[in-house]
Amino acid sequence: MKDVTVIILPYVVLLAMILIAWPTTTWATLRADLTHVDSGRGFTKRELLSRMAARSTARAASLARAATAPVARGTTGKEDINSEYLVHLGVGTPSPQGVALVLDTGSDLTWTQCACTACYKQPFPVFDPSASRTLGVVSCTDPICSARGGLPLSACSVKGNQCRYGYSYGDKSFTIGTVVEDTFTFSGSAAAVPSLRFGCGMNNSLTSTEASGIAGFGRGPLSLPSQLNAAVFSYCFTTIVEPGSSPVFLGTQDSLGDDAQSTPFAPTPARGGTSSFYYLSLHGVTVGETLMPLNDASESADGSGGAPIIDSGTSITMFPQAVFQSIREAFVSQVPLPVADASETGGLLCFSTADPKNVAVPKLVFHLEGADWDIPRQNYVLDVDDDDGALLCVVMLSAGDHDMTIIGNFQQQNTHIVYDLQANKMVFAPASCDQL
Ligand SMILES: *[C@@H]1O[C@H](CO)[C@@H](O)[C@H](O)[C@H]1NC(C)=O
To answer: Measuring from atom 2 of ligand 1, which residue has the nearest CA?
Structure first.
């Protein structure tokens, strides 16, 4: 009897070890929750709109700088730019510490405030590296600690052979700290992935005080999808006016169904392009009866700036000034309502009307390579009806001085957007994001 127990026990222990280890080693799809930064904070639609407009304008300035000088210390930003949808993750073991990071497809480094020397205020405790058993330092000689590894500004700390980094976003936002690695827990899927590299940000500026840092989902080697070797990632944004959470998935992807369309990612422009960005080929825009072809981006002033990107971190879609002007005129000529003073609507085209909900608005279609993206009304029109009056606003902006075309997240609401990195294409389909 005794002998039998002795023989069986190791197998039981081994089996238990396999069961415990399984989620960390063979994840198929990781899931995490997303919330909108302004959700549940009691803003009116008018306030939401002006907050979005201010952030989007600053973001365009930031991305335009990124396109010309990847980590130049920025000076152009006025307000917080990187503050739209937050991804909620746990970092460290045995108790994962919660972080809320801006989901940013326009940059690569993931970082969270940590071991602070000069942190901004955040609404929950700052990540404490000493409380994690699995935290590891990344040495200066690690390939990641170099421009090729994705850190254009890195150095070796005098003490302890640790990789120091500085990363800035073209506006006033920046983070300075040490590259570390730890286990990330994806709450939605209860899976833990060991040894992901991220910035322990000790001196940071990010005026979004709702976020503890940024989750880099760009194309570079340092980004979360790259580190996870994910063939695919996807997200689905709930509408900004209805609070709720929705998912981001990393890993394999089920089919999106019969409504799905796909368009290839375009190559990064040779001159002035940014390797983190997801470029698309956008051939034209239809507003109601008017089709506006877009010039080949290579004809734009700096040879690249006009090349369209899809971005999770910009709210409002933007076009170069001349393109925006034609889109604006197309709306004005097809909507028989008085135009509101643009200086009072943050540069947005708004119409005065007593009954914004019942105005017939011209359809909006983005003609991408191989896909016509018919934008649902609620993804380009916001009805504002409050004490200050009623407006119907077209939620698109001019990129001003910046020769940028950015498809922003307002246009992506309730759309499941798949970044198929393996097949180098974007797949998208309408979805009820809070149901996924
Ligand atoms: C934080 O970084 C900024 C910008 O580089 C610098 O001016 C400031 O002195 C730093 N603060 C601390 C406490 O290191």
So the answer is: 203
